[in-house]
Design a protein that fits this description.
The protein is α+β, with helices and mostly antiparallel strands and 456 residues long. It contains twelve helices and 18 strands. It has a four-stranded antiparallel β-sheet. Strands 10-9-13-14 form a four-stranded antiparallel β-sheet, with no helix packed on it. Strands 1-2 form a two-stranded antiparallel sheet. Belongs to the peptidase M50B family.
């Protein structure tokens, strides 16, 4: 997917989420009798505007990376005597707090609605049937075997939550990793035999950013047949004579049960800095062919791994996952709450040095995810919007002076002390908050660039 498409879907997402946030501020302000001067989607120079009957100017501005609601009496400007009751600063404390909190609340409610819509619409998702885990991965240490089906997960091994698909399992694993907790899996073997409980030590990867290396380290991949799906022209597999459609029977005399085993065997086919030739037996058009492919070594996240430059596996078996009206809504509430709690705890772990700052993502990564989810279909895109909406809600509630959460801290101080925060302190805190936000943005952009450049 090209850059223009990603940028387009990113702007579509911003064009949905930002107005919802500002609409929350606007509606509660109007309900409290505050005069709203301007409702703007975007910052900077106004490109288009229209004044409504109530006197509010609705505008679209040049920089589409946010928005704002400008209310009478939010700053130090003079207010005409006949408009004093409509000035924000003259409203009771509880009303001012409600107006500020309404933006994040609107994003939270939107996230619930979107998560629920995804649950109601349903989707085809990979079954939670696992393939052979990579050597030394968390799944291998836990005792996962090819063909195991995961039915439920638990944080403590006592209270269990049902798992309907591999997608739900991976979400639970990501949440446990972010929180630095282990995850218990209730699994049964091939054909549903031998139910048992396994403990996945996701706390070993606590705080690390989620990427391809972490997926390999966790080792939960869908069961797939050991078929060669694609051979890159001029690659090591092509040079060895591999062809699309080949079924791999054995490697170095060992049977190949599934694609997971095949991928791991190729990755480990090297002795330090030297690739190692492998002895393969493949089935091709009803006959057995013996080949001796030698992979090429590449750097992946500071490690040397072997690659044959081939695509492996078949599409995993899927299951239709959908929920009824009540269950879908409850799932939306639960997903939004879980995401909020996980995000807050992860930020806390980052602040105390227990999690990597690489977990911050910026606009480049968000635009990439926007394009990928839109390309995947309606449900994935709605899920993406729900995740970003919930992230905006949590981010805006952080107690930083330039965010909604910072203003709520001012009002908390005012409620407890009986006096507002002084102008001097507000100026100092605004400056500190601006510097912190710029640091966070710089980290996020640095992480974006690092991901695309392959630095981490």
């Amino acid at each position: 997917m090209d850059v223009i498409q990603k940028a387009f879907w990113f702007l579509i997402a911003i064009g949905i989420l930002v107005p919802i946030h500002e609409w929350g501020h606007y509606r509660v302000a109007r309900a409290c009798g505050v005069k709203v001067l301007r409702f703007s989607v975007g910052f900077g120079r106004v490109l288009w505007s229209r004044v409504a009957r109530n006197g509010t100017e609705f505008a679209i501005s040049a920089v589409p990376l946010g928005g704002y609601v400008r209310m009478l009496g939010m700053g130090d400007e003079l207010v005409a005597p006949h408009e004093r009751e409509q000035a924000f600063r003259n409203r009771p404390l509880r009303q001012r707090a409600a107006i500020i909190a309404a933006g994040p609340v609107a994003n939270w409610l939107l996230a619930i609605a979107l998560f629920a819509a995804v649950a109601w619409l349903g989707s085809e998702q990979p079954k939670a049937v696992l393939g052979t885990p990579p050597a030394a991965s968390l799944a291998e240490r836990a005792g996962v075997r090819a063909g195991d089906s995961v039915h439920a997960v638990s944080r403590d091994g006592q209270q269990w939550d049902d798992i309907a698909s591999l997608t739900e399992l991976q979400a639970a694993v990501s949440r446990a990793q972010a929180l630095g907790e282990s995850l218990h899996l209730s699994v049964s073997g091939a054909q549903g035999h031998g139910s048992r409980s396994l403990r996945l030590e996701t706390e070993r990867l606590a705080g690390r950013s989620s990427d391809g290396r972490q997926s390999s380290a966790i080792g939960l991949a869908p069961l797939a047949e050991p078929l060669i799906r694609q051979v890159v022209a001029g690659g090591a597999g092509d040079a060895a004579g591999l062809q699309a459609g080949d079924r791999v029977l054995s490697i170095d005399g060992q049977p190949v049960p599934d694609a997971g085993y095949l991928i791991d065997a190729v990755r480990r086919a090297h002795d330090g800095e030297r690739p190692r030739a492998m002895s393969w037996r493949v089935e091709r058009a009803g006959r057995v062919v013996e080949l001796t492919p030698t992979p090429r070594l590449v750097d992946e996240g500071g490690r040397r791994i072997a690659r044959l430059e081939i695509g492996v596996g078949t599409p995993p078996e899927t299951v239709s996952v959908s929920y009824g009206p009540v269950d879908g809504l409850m799932r939306g509430v639960q997903q939004s709450w879980d995401m909020a709690a996980t995000t807050v705890k992860l930020i806390g772990r980052i602040l105390v040095g227990e999690a990597s700052v690489k977990n911050f993502s910026g606009p480049l990564t968000i635009a990439d995810y926007a394009g990928q989810s839109a390309h995947a279909g309606l449900s994935p895109f709605l899920n993406f919007l729900a995740v970003i909406s919930m992230s905006l809600a949590v981010l805006n509630l952080l107690p930083l002076p330039m965010l909604d959460g910072g203003h709520l801290m001012y009002y908390l101080f005012e409620g407890l002390s009986g006096r507002p925060v002084s102008d001097w302190w507000q100026q100092k805190l605004q400056t500190a908050g601006f510097l912190i936000l710029m640091l966070m943005l710089a980290l996020a952009l640095s992480n974006d660039v690092g991901r695309y450049a392959g630095w981490h």
